[in-house]
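Quick one:
INPUT:
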């Protein structure tokens, strides 16, 4: 999953309130968009797990395909909606450099970490661990404002750490029920997702999210292709496999993100983020029903603790 907190941009005079019916319509549309977006992200994680296991696809291969495919869709949307911004960003070296940093440290790092965590654990665990991004944002906020965490923020930190401990050990500190590397990649994906909210400089803030992410995913996709040379180990994928890869790109990346952006505009970024927390629930249920994944009681408690952290830090 790759999302950034997006503020809604007013399009009319500040002193003209929309009719009550229009407000209700936007609220309903935003709520549905956020829920569908979260569901798409969750199903995409389960589809990624199936594709990587069934066709022995390396996470880096899938990540490069996902980024380049989504880049094409983001770029098409950007060219249709804001072509002038595409030209400006493409011809301004300073802004391009910012997009490169954002693309590599934020978008690419988060996607690679997420898929590596899915490959080593499962989509539900990886998705929940990625939500540790809010924990990193909390730490960043406290350091930035030179203050100690508030009471509920301290509780959120404790809950997150306890949840990660339960996922990793099943409650027994002498054993590891999932590979430590899987936990590490999931937390790394959370850190990178937090960077997505922090890295974009003021120069990029005025650009459409479609434009910024088109360039970011292009940079990340090209770098991954250069490093992995996917043509040297092309996976044996049948029609079903390619259909699932296309679904991961079009629905689980571009479509889910576009819906999330619309939700943030309609209901605000905080409410959209909370509604989209349906993602780990969808990932858990779909993993159990479609892939036969079995979760321990301690896994479910760990999920609940980390999601409680999400709600505490998002207040």
């Amino acid at each position: 999953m790759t999302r950034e907190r997006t503020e809604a941009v007013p399009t009319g005079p500040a002193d003209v309130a929309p009719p009550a019916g229009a407000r209700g319509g936007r609220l309903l549309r935003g709520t549905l968009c956020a829920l569908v977006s979260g569901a798409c992200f969750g199903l995409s994680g389960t589809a990624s797990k199936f594709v990587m296991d069934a066709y022995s696809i390396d996470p880096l291969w899938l990540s490069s395909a996902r980024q380049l495919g989504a880049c094409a869709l983001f770029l098409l949307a950007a060219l249709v909606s804001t072509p002038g911004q595409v030209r400006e960003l493409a011809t301004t070296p300073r802004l391009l450099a910012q997009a490169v940093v954002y693309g590599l440290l934020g978008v690419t790092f988060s996607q690679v970490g997420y898929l590596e965590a899915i490959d080593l654990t499962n989509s539900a665990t990886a998705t929940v661990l990625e939500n540790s991004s809010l924990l990193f944002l909390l730490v960043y906020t406290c350091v930035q404002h030179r203050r100690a965490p508030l009471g509920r923020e301290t509780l959120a930190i404790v809950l997150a750490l306890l949840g990660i401990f339960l996922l990793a050990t099943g409650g027994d500190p002498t054993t590891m029920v999932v590979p430590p590397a899987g936990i590490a990649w999931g937390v790394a994906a959370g850190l990178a997702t937090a960077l997505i909210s922090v890295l974009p400089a003021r120069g990029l803030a005025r650009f459409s999210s479609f434009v910024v992410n088109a360039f970011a995913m292009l940079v990340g996709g090209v770098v991954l292709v250069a490093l992995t040379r996917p043509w040297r180990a092309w996976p044996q994928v049948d029609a079903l496999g390619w259909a699932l890869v296309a679904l991961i790109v079009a629905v689980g990346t571009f479509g889910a993100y576009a819906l999330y952006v619309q939700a943030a505009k309609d209901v605000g970024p905080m409410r959209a983020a909370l509604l989209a927390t349906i993602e780990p629930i969808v990932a858990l249920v779909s993993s159990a029903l479609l892939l036969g994944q079995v979760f321990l009681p301690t896994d479910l408690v760990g999920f609940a603790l980390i999601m409680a952290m999400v709600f505490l830090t998002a207040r």
